[in-house]
Write a structure and sequence with these properties.
InterPro entries: Cyt_b558_asu. This protein is mostly helical and 122 residues long. It has helices at residues 6-16, 18-21, 23-37, 44-62, 80-83, 97-106. α3 (23-37) runs antiparallel to α4.
């Protein structure tokens, strides 16, 4: 899934082609940017972060990873025949007819009988 604003950066990275797609190039670039920052005390933390990013990119490049842009995919419409479900072939299970008659004769007039006594003490 594409993140917010990613399409703009992806179009910039596509322009430079294999130079930006390759993680070896990114690792070297991050390492080169980290060197000047190491000489100034105020930028040591940024230098450490760039150095760690350089190591991460280098390890990813060794494992064969590379950047690829997210291409928009056309949504495949499901065919009509796949969306229609087949109707059931067998009827739902029911108790035998004599059991259904007994249940109908024993059923209370008001419907369901609550087995727990309920009282209103207001």
């Amino acid at each position: 899934m594409e993140r917010c604003g990613q399409k703009y950066m992806a179009s910039v990275l596509k322009v430079f082609g294999p130079l930006t797609r390759n993680y070896y190039v990114r690792a070297i670039l991050h390492a080169a940017l980290a060197v000047p920052g190491g000489f100034i005390l105020a930028t040591i933390l940024g230098t450490v972060c760039l150095g760690i990013a350089s190591i991460i990119y280098f390890l990813a490049a060794i494992r064969g990873e590379e950047w690829r842009p997210i291409e928009p995919q056309a949504e495949a419409k499901p065919r009509l025949a796949e969306t229609i479900k087949r109707p059931p072939e067998n009827p739902p299970p029911r108790p035998p007819a004599e059991v259904r008659r007994k249940q109908a004769d024993e059923a209370p007039v008001g419907g369901h009988v609550n087995p727990i006594a309920v009282s209103d003490d207001v």
